[in-house]
Amino acid sequence: MEISQQDIFLLCQTFRKxxxxxxSDYSYKSLYRRVEKILTDNNITIETLIENINKDxxxxxxxxxxxxxxxxxxxxDPEVWIAVSNLIQQRFANAKHIxxxxxxxSSGQEVYSMLMLLNEINMFDRASVFGTDINEDVxxxxxxxxxxxxxxxxxxxxxxAVINCNRNEEDFVPISKYILSFPQRGYLQIVPWxxxxxxxxxxxxxxxxxxxxxxxxxxxxxxxxxxxxHELQNKIIDFFYNKLNDxxxxxxxxxxxxxxxxxxxxxxxxxxxxxxxRKSNFF
Length: 283
What we know:
Blueprint: H1 5-18, H2 28-42, H3 46-55, H4 57-67, H5 78-92, E1 98-103, H6 109-120, E2 127-133, H7 136-144, E3 146-148, H8 152-163, E4 179-182, E5 187-190, H9 192-195, E6 199-202, E7 216-221, H10 230-243, E8 244-252, E9 266-269, E10 272-275
Parallel strand pairs: 1-2, 1-7, 2-6, 7-8
Antiparallel strand pairs: 3-5, 4-5, 8-10, 9-10
Helix pairs in contact: 1-3, 3-4, 5-8
């Protein structure tokens, strides 16, 4: 389906007019690809799409779910998780409590990755963990902790690379400690005591709306910023800065960085960013 930049503008304008959703600061290329796919998959024109969004809120919510990208996996990029594990243990070993937020958590695999890691380093009981996303469908999946059985092929190597890093054979932790497999039924189930731990909620990160009246020790938001334009990326980085406690950690994707004066508030520690205690003039 042929769509123009003006079509994308009108679509974003429609969303703002009839809902609280604002896609105007999304990366144009990313938004274009998602809208193009929606039109092709549903065999409709951009005019029909806009008309339906105007008159049917449930339809609008469905389109929002299709626009938002929800690619995630357990312990994605194991080397990042090993760095996260080491720094958490160094920085928060003596903390009585640690608060962690996963904005843009999608279907929750990174939330459960964090919980497994916390359990292995004896910090599970001291942690409060939150996962938020704009997409209600993936939040429902996250809340139930149930995933496709075929995903075990990706999860198992990542799990071993992180959880069993430098362990000898007698101390080896099987993935079955945390994930129950039902191959005949075609799904994996996160163990109930892990599913009961995190709090999942709908949250619009684009609007930089406050989530809870609190600050966090760790914010993990990986591979979300790449879908936004630079202006919105910087706005969200500022938002994260203000939501972090002093010496708090920000974890973003490997393809994402903090540039210019926005980097003044952070110290880069490998794949992680640490909030500086001293605020620059910008912040």
